[in-house]
Amino acid sequence: MSLEALVTELTETGLNSLDTDKLRELKRICKKDNGIHVVSTFNVLLMSLSKEHAQIRYSGLQAVNELFIRSHQFRLLVVASLPQILTLVFGAYQRPLPRPPEHAAKLKQLAAECMYSWVEKYGAGYQRLVIGFRFLRYMERVDFRAAARVFRRNDPVRIEKSRALHVENRSEYMLRALIAVRTGFLNMRPVIEEALRMLNGCFAILLPDIADLFAESGDSRIEDDGADIEEIMAVMAVNRHAVDIDFNPSRIIEAKEDSINAAVYDVIRDYLRLCVTKYEPQLRAWTDRLARLDSSSDPELGGLAEAVDKLKSRVVDVVPKCVDLGIDLAFIHAGSGRPDDEKSDDEFEDVPEDFYKTRNTSGKRPALESLSAPRHKRHQVFSLLGEPGLESDPTYIRPELLRSLQPRTTRSANASSTKSSSDFEDKLRETAPVVEYGPDLMYWGQDTVDTNTSGLEIRHRFLGSAREEATLSGTAADNLKKRAVFYSDAIKSQDAAGQREIKACRAPLKGGRLCPRRDLVKCPFHGPVIDRDEKGRPQGGFLVAEGDEETPSDSPVGGEQRQSTVATAETVNEIEWRDLEALVKLKQLPVASRKTKKEPPAKSALIDIPIAKHKLLELIDTDRALIVVPFHFDWRAASLRVLLGASSTVALLLIVNGAYILAKGHPQQSRGITSVVEASLILLSMLSAAWVLTRESRLEAYELDKRLRAVAGEIREWTGTYADLRTPQLPTVTTYMTLRDGAWRDVPTLLLVKDDVIALGYGETAPCEVGLRTGELAGLVLTRGQTLAPELMRSRLCLECRLWDPLSAGHQAMAGRVLFLVLDTPLRNHLEQIARHHQRTDKSVLQNQICVVVRLCLLRILPIVAAIAVVANAIIYGVVDVGQRSLRHMAMETIVGKTAYVLFPFACTALWPVYWIAVRIFTNACEVVLFDTLQRSKTEYEDMEDIDEFDVEALPPTKDISVGIGAIWGRMQWLWRNCDYQNLSRSSNLSETLGNITVICSIDKEGTIAEPFCTPEQIVVPDADEEDYAILDLEEQQVGSEVKAFIIDEGWEKYLPSLRPLGLNCGVNTLAHRMGKLRIDTTHKRHNCMRQQGKILSSQDTCLCKISRAIGFTNDDLARFHMLKEVDVFAPFHKATELLSRKDISAVASFTSAVLQSEDGAGRLQMLTDGNVELVLGMCLDYFDGSEIRPLSDRTMAMYYGLYLNALQQDLQCLAFAYRPLALDTRGLTWPGWGSPEQPKTNKQSIYVDIALESPVDESPRQFVAVVQAPAELAGGKEESHSGTEEGDNGVAGLGTVVDLPDHLTEVARLASIRSKSASTPPAMSDGKDGGFDYTSDDLRQFATEQDFLRDAITEQIFLGLVTFAYDPKVDVCDFVEDLSIAGIRFVYFSKAKGRQSKSFAERLGLETDWNTCILLSSVADSSCDDIIDDGYVEDHDIKAQLPRGIESIRSHLKEVDDIPLQISLFAECTPDSTREMINIFQENGDIVCCIGSALKDANTLTFAAADLAVGIEPIPHFNWIALGSNQVAALSGHDVANDGSISTSGALVTQYALGAALTCIPCPLFLQHDTSLYTLMQVISEARRLVGCIQQSGALLVASCLVLVLINLVCSLCLLPPALTGFMLLWVLWAMVPLLGMALLFVPHDENIMSTMPLKNQDHVSDMPRFAVYALIRMLPPIVVTILVYVTALERMLSDVPHLGQLASAFGRADWLALDQEQQWAVLAAQTFAMVAFVFHVVCVSSTLMYRTRSCLEFVPFRNFAWVVASALCLLMTFLFAALLLAFGEAHIGRVSWYTYLIAFAGPLVLLPLQDACKLHDKKRWTRLQKLAKLEFKTKLGQHSPL
Fold it and tell me: How many C-beta neighbours within 10 Å does residue 138 have?
């Protein structure tokens, strides 16, 4: 058996213990071959610990523990992987343990025990164990107390050591405690004695001693010195004196407080306070401490304890005496000396009232004697109250305690005779389940039960018992012995009669009786309840222990009595109660076989986990392989092949030249060895670059695959937690009501799986292929994206002209929805579409610029330079070497060697791709860390201090935060090693794309760029004065910490009579006041059931309590009304729904009516309604204008209906409000909830009512004039007086709009509808005034159902007014859009709404909404509007320019007309496909597109993939809140605390929304939280622009340095001189110095004007190349001249045989280079070293001018860049050290170098810097001109006829 198979069988049994044989085999494998299999075993066990099942991990941990305590090598492996193991077995790092939950708890407990034992035994040798233990204890809050107890039980040696240490510490403690008690007691004892003496003296004054009383009577037998009272009583008994005794204690003590003895009582109170508050607590503490001390520790302990105890008893006895004297102890708590003293005394402390009661500190229950008599003898004055001798008095009856403190024995004599049982019975009793102790067990088997069990005395000492019997009756006692067990309704429903007989257990008991306990499943003592005979023996199949057979209980077996073998405790101990209950329900209770043959191996006991997420995981694992991004680097590119070929050629030439020099040179030439070494370094750099590029390409190609793996990991760890949304239904959140775990959950589209049941409402689209699963309509199938339209169901449901019945096709809990079965998993199609459409992101602008420069250098400059070098060197060899000197052996040196060193700088660039990768990782790390920091920051964006906020050209606000280099470095390390699945920085070219964004497009509105809640804008109420309407504007303002709504119109108070009923409707109907206080601080969702019934408008799901508060209602006002019923009315087949469909509003016309009852009285109800305007208007016959109720005429109806249509045109949502008073006679009414109001915060009853459109009259539609002057959104006017139309000659005056009033809204139709209903009802109902009731009890009984009554009651309502709602942009969004234009970035909004609605919202955003600013992307054939002309634009409004219609016309328009589609910011009637196509058009024309959209809309994924950069935005504010209960919620840290800008959900409790967002945002590199400002994106773009500019300047420095070095060596070659810089010097400069300076340029400070420049488009890259070439030549000419001059002057001075500089070329031209002596070789090397130093110095100076492209050194001092200062100093220092190292061992005479060589070398910057600034100045002028042209760029083919 293989190791994997063995571990699998060992860990996947599901049992609590491991198989010993398999465990022994595993240990044997580990020991085999000297433990070489330990590593393999550990890896296999680690894989078992990683499986998503708690039972497997439990068994795996047991195996790990067994090997851990036996193998040092295994312990090292465990310690090395400790963090991973802690995560798997403890759920550390916020990683929850897998299911089942009960086994997960056992796993965590076992892990705690193992970890504690490991630390105790091996912690000294393995420090990481101790660190992990502390991490778990203090960071993860793991409780190790139970583990410690288990460890102590199992380790007696450690227990003994601990016990010895404890004894030693206890002895020392007791000694210190004894000394402290003795000292304190001796100091306080005299004070307490004095207090007691004063109290006794006061007692004696108030009540003299009884002996003194007898002395006054003159009895000679009583001596004056005070005889003993007992002797006196004895004498009195002998002489039999007749004494009259009054046994009333109050008659004995006659002392009363008066003016005479008031001073004595005050003294008593003062000392009593000291005794209560100070002396008694101190003495009690000393007594408790002495009681805990060991008596053997000190011989004086006993005496000291006795003295303290006696003194404490004396103090305690004082209090009852004071009580007997009539002193009220309340003064101690009141703090006064006398009861009537008003003056408080703070000197004493309060104590509990029961302090004087006898304290029991031992923890044991006191004996009976201690409860009946005091412990010490009391003063004689009070002896009659509690004297122990009273028990001998014949008149005394001792109180009896009726509660027995010891358990009574109830077994009979026969039962007690049987003292032993079988061993098997003992085992059963050991494993028997424990039942919670209760009254039934307390009185089990008792014949009589006492009534008084409180322990109080019920017998008087003289009067006897209070009643004859103190026991319960037989019936009451029997009921007390029973325990009630409640079962679910599902069990009861199994019985047809509604009742189910619960059988008795009837198991045999000792004594011959049968167990009478009744239970449904099992008896707690005897197991499952089965059928038994009259003797208790099982009948039929029963559970027996293995190997046992049934034997009667009374038959001896083997000389012993054997009980019945119903071994339930041993057989089903692994089956839990709920499992047994489920088995009983299914009638599948396991019955053991009575056969003795060996049974087959039992199946695994693993518990099944829900398979929904496993379907998703399987799908991700199979389909993610389809999503592969091609390698970024194309090895077939011409420039790359030229670079590799050139580098290989140079390396080959150097090797050949070096080998030839080594072979032919004499004396030995050192440059031969260096040539070979240099060639080796070139080849090594090529291999390194190839490895890095290949690795980077692979990491980039698998970023999406890695992200899908990460999402799969989160799904795998998902525990099924579902969050509760607190926002209305949003189109940007595509969730579906899905039946999961027996409850309806909101599940995102991408988490649906096949065979899920979803509830679709009308207007909702199908997430995938779904099939109707109800009744006769099961054949209906909806495809993906198909809308469930009412027309689709009308033909199927309206059989025989019957109306739509939702209960026949829907679900009773959601009557307005239809149940569908999911036929396919949406994630499958989602991944397939991503694989089909997602491609590698095109090269960024920066990458294209680099490619242009590289192609120029490698494909043009390199061949030209190579040709010049080869031709020139060949001519030199032929003319000079052969023709003049006949040195034919110089061919190799002259042609090959000199040409190789001319081309050597090109070969050095083979390593530059590695630098590019490092720079790219650095910039990506900067962007990600900055984005993360900005999201974590809680500060607000603020403008700079010197910027005017009203300045149009002002720079955008920023957050003043700093990013640490440590965080960037850590992120760089992570990016270098891993695929960036969190931010996709490689495949998205994150930093380069951000730095060149030209378009930011928003594809969503609600929750992304607008608030998720629609806010009320205006209130429309009837105006009584003008017989018209008034429009009042609402505005929200910040008041302290709250946001309140206010009506901002002046004089709005005169409309209060009209506003009050509407405000009451808004306040009561939304139920906000029932959830606690009236919530006005935040916008919130309504608390009703509308959204469960069907798809509604978001305004219907938004709470309106802000309107109620603005009108003046308070929470107390609204609390007087209680809701009886919530009536949810839906009209899917109504004309109102058709109107919404034509306006592309996916909702069903509906309204909600609340039936309310006030505190005034029952029967008088109010029905308040709000909802769809057209639907509510159709239910109204009158309207209320604030003073009276008037008929709702057709003209008035048309007026309000026109307002409604106008609101829809302006992208507003509109609700109508109405009410109806109801007077019901509820006597005899059987419908629940109508009799009395419900209490607050209780679940109200929601009733679904559907209505259909009926046309009782046959009239044609009529036209009416409506809405003439309406402000702002409704009518466009801005007058304060919002009056309506005035009648003129033709009935209408002023500007009006003709409205086609639907026939069902006409007055005739509404009245006819009412008459038709009245005709179908009894006459009493038609009158409606019988006894003052609208509906009498007889009327109500005529309705078959409650829905029928409500369908009639919602008619004949009174119209109150309208409220319009709008989606306001988020905070800072409008400013963000405005600042984008300053930054040269165009904001584009893709709207799915019509053109007019889209323009309305665009106007709120601040976009241009004039003519030619909106293009419709839908084709003419797709449009359904009636008010459009042929091209689709609204007539007389938008037809001012030649605009394309439809996405298919955009490209032709760009080619033939103009580029308006590339200039405007608004596109309407967009679909996801047309949006993606438009983004592609943007990219084709050079735009870099950033797409922002909702992270919970699955249709956005492909659009995200099409954009250059995508940003997912959290659309809902409480997206990660989980409902824990009725009043508790838990906030998650995922995105709120630990969000790093990625879609990773690690570190948070994963919900369905987090997983849905992760799957939707697969192509998104960045993720914005809901409350994160969009300015975060702008600040990240600003930083990216800075980094891109720095990279461009760094690249210019590198390229210029390479070309300059090529030119320097070429000039030297043409001058017959050796190369000015050798190969290793070139490597030093191009591999170390120049890259270091280029890296320092990345830290240039931020340019404040960087966000006011136009970004470059991704086309026509480096179009002005000649101008840049001239700039480069001018700026690099000084380094070229200076380097050559330094080289030749130094070489001339170092060679002794060269008389002057003019003969230097001829001297080297005539010399044999293979025969140079050591002096000549060192002279050349020294001159080359001087040239290298001069070049590096000038490169440093040139880099100082490359901080900014156009700013001179005077505008920006280079020393402000600290990184550049350090890098420059480091470059110069290292170069000087390198030069010193080269010259230290040479024979060259450095002192020969003349002073002018140094002057040339270090005075060059005086010429260099002015040339740099001159070039910058010229470039700035050109760049400014190009910026202006870019802002005004407009391409047109129309010439002067162009609209621009």
Answer: 9
Q: In angstroms, rounded to a whole number, what is the distance separating the alpha carbons of residues 697 and 634?
A: 10
96: tokens are: 């929850």
CA proximity to 1032, closest of 1015, 1049, 1012: 1049
For 1041-1097, the pLDDT digits (tens) are: 677 888 988 888 888 989 999 998 888 876 655 554 444 445 677 877 788 888 888
User: Would you mind telling me the total number of residues written for the chain in this entry?
Assistant: 1844
Strands 1297-1301, 1164-1172: pairing kind: unpaired
Tokens of 520: 């449904």
For 640, the token pair is 């790359």
The HSE-up count of residue 1793 (CA atoms within 13 Å, CB side) is 23
Return the amino acid letter for 1817.
Answer: L
- Residue written as token pair 């369905």: 1552
Relative to beta strand 999-1002, strand 1489-1494 is: parallel
Report pLDDT for 1458: 84
HSE, side-chain direction, 13 A CA sphere, residue 475: 0
| Residue type for position 1292 | V
Residue 1127, Cα to own-chain centre: how many angstroms? 36
Query: Which residue has 């997602």 as its token pair?
Result: 838
Q: Is residue 78 within 8 Å of residue 85, measured between CB atoms? A: yes
Strand pairing partners for 1361?
1217
- How far from 782 is each of 770, 785, 789, 1093, CA to CA, in Å? 5, 8, 11, 20
Entry pTM: 0.68
Rg of the chain (C-alpha set): 49
Rounded CA separation 1627/1638 (Å): 16
Q: For residue 585, is pLDDT > 70?
A: no
User: Is the confidence at residue 864, as pLDDT, over 90?
Assistant: yes
For residue 167, the one-letter residue type is V
Q: Amino acid identity of 1656? A: L
pLDDT band at residue 1765 using 50, 70 and 90 as cut-offs: very high
433 pLDDT band, cuts 50/70/90, is low
Q: What are phi and psi of 787, to 5 degrees?
A: -85, 140
User: What is the distance in angstroms between the CA of the first residue and the CA of the last residue of the chain?
Assistant: 82
Q: How far is it, in rounded angstroms, from Cα 1645 to Cα 1589?
A: 12
Give 763 or 1, the one with higher predicted confidence: 763
195-198 contacts, C-beta under 8 A, 24 or more apart: 195/271, 195/274, 195/275, 195/279, 196/314, 196/315, 196/318, 198/267, 198/271
**How far apart (Å, rounded) are the C-alpha atoms in residues 1129 and 1094?**
10
pLDDT at 391: 45
Determine contact, residues 1656/997, Cβ cutoff 8 Å: no
Burial of 21 (0-12, 13-18, 19+ CB in 10 A): exposed
Residue type, 1102: T
Q: Are 793 and 817 in contact (CB under 8 A)?
A: no
The pair of three-digit structure tokens given for residue 1443, joined into one six-digit string: 């605009």
Sorted by where each starts, the structural domains of the chain and their CATH numbers stand as 3-154 (1.25.40), 167-211+258-371 (no CATH), 483-595 (no CATH), 733-837 (2.70.150.10), 990-1009+1368-1573 (3.40.50.1000), 1015-1281+1288-1366 (no CATH), 1585-1644+1676-1704+1720-1820 (1.20.1110.10)
- Indicate if the pLDDT at residue 136 is higher than 50: yes
Q: How far is CA 730 from CA 241, 1100, 1635, in A?
A: 103, 12, 52
Q: Cβ distance 571 to 592 under 8 Å? A: yes
Place of tokens 């078992």: 48
- Regarding predicted confidence, which is higher, 441 or 916? 916
Residues 1138-1143: contacts with CB within 8 Å, 24+ apart? 1139/1174, 1140/763, 1140/1172, 1141/763, 1141/789, 1142/1424, 1142/1425, 1143/1208, 1143/1394, 1143/1397
Question: How far is Cα of residue 49 from the mean position of the Cα atoms in its chain?
Answer: 27
Q: Are 136 and 92 in contact (CB under 8 A)?
A: yes
Which residues, other chains included, contact 320 with Cβ-Cβ below 8 Å and sequence gap of 6+?
Answer: 356, 378, 382, 385
